Amino acid sequence: MKTLYTWVAIVAVTLASVIGDVLLSRAMKQVGDVHDLWRRRGLWTVVGRVLGNPGFFLGVAAMAVAFFSLLFALSWGDVSLVAPAAASLTFIGNAFAARIFLHEKVDRRRWIAAVLVAGGVALLAR
Amino acid sequence: MTFRKYLVLAGVTVFAAAGDSMLSHGMKQAGHISLSHLQDVILAVTNPWVAAGILLLLAFFASYMNALSWADLTYVLPATSLGYVLLALIARFVLHEEVSPLRWIGIALISGGVGFVAGGPALTSHHGEAAEEAEVASRGAKP
Hints:
heterodimer; A: mainly alpha; 87% helix; 0% strand; B: mainly alpha; globular
């Protein structure tokens, strides 16, 4: 039962951080290249546009959910399972989500990168 | 990719790794925090390592948002995963911890993944996206 809880929490961490990453990435694309914007309109325009974007706050909220789910996952399962499993699954989940929701061109090169990094993180974090 | 953009990616990597290490170090000094004594979390912030860790993680978040403003998510994430490698190297050479062969393989895999993604374009060109069109229009002509 504890194993089931742990995996449910790991999946929750993964889903929340994928949702957070996608929302934040979309928000920042809407804001536009921060450096260009800063140079042309000044820092306050950048701050205003970021803070004026509802997606940004939803993204931060999703990240907070991911953080607290991680705390729960850690209280049920070993850190040597939870941390690498959640990090690896997030890399793979992000590759799918970025392709579907952000319409990023996830070519073979990026798939290989995502799989290698996910595998590497799984090995490294035990 | 300009030098400034590589600098931002390096910032994401270094701030995350350094922030996590400091936070971890500080929280071990602060001691065990149980769910029934959540107010201890607030006290933990007064630990200088924890405070410095939080500042660095804020810097990480700012550079991460900066990177996402001009690069794809599937580019930024693998490109900045070198932080994991950095943490392992710090553990080995600064903290003199044992790094197992399995971990060295992990380091090799991540470095390989970073190499793969770094060779490709940073941003998918989207045509017809409202924000980008407005940017292009305001700038005159940029593809």
